[in-house]
Design brief:
150 residues; alpha+beta; Arc Repressor Mutant, subunit A; Gyrase A, domain 2; 2 domains
Length: 150
């Protein structure tokens, strides 16, 4: 069921300009799936969907998963982060990244792709990313790397 739902999400964003999770949820419900907003949110993260511009310049949900781990896709992630992030700071083992409005989700996908193995977890809002690290030292080191990227 999950795979079919996620395939449908990819089909929805491919064929429609979708701006919100609610739009995805409504389209899934019309297609016969019973889903909650939190399920859609998890699917978006697993599918590595971000808000960005498509090839025609429309702002919408798009897939950020372009190749798995290739240097080309890592360059793409670095550019996504650099474009979206405004500032980085840390306190104890937590990192907070401030982003331009509406761009935290995309920047979070980029951070997860580049540094995911070093973090305990991330969460993104509209303009803020919160990262939990294993230690204060890890948080300070990653903060310095992220600052260099901006």
């Amino acid at each position: 069921m999950k795979n079919k739902r996620q395939e449908m999400i990819l089909e929805i964003i491919k064929n429609n300009i979708v701006l919100t999770q609610e739009d995805i949820q409504n389209a899934l419900i019309k297609a016969g799936f019973s889903v909650t907003q939190s399920t859609v949110s998890r699917d978006i993260k697993e599918l590595k969907l971000i808000k960005g511009h498509d090839s025609e310049g429309n702002y919408r949900y798009i897939s950020a998963a372009k190749g798995s781990g290739s240097s080309k896709s890592l360059t793409h992630y670095y550019e996504m982060f650099k474009t979206a992030a405004k500032s980085v700071d840390c306190a104890l083992n937590d990192i907070v990244i401030r982003c331009h409005n509406g761009m935290a989700s995309g920047a979070c996908v980029a951070v997860d792709a580049i540094f995911g193995d070093r973090m305990l977890g991330t969460i993104a809002g509209d303009d803020t990313i919160f990262i939990v690290m294993r230690s204060v030292e890890d948080a300070v080191a990653l903060t310095k790397e992220l600052e260099k990227m901006i």
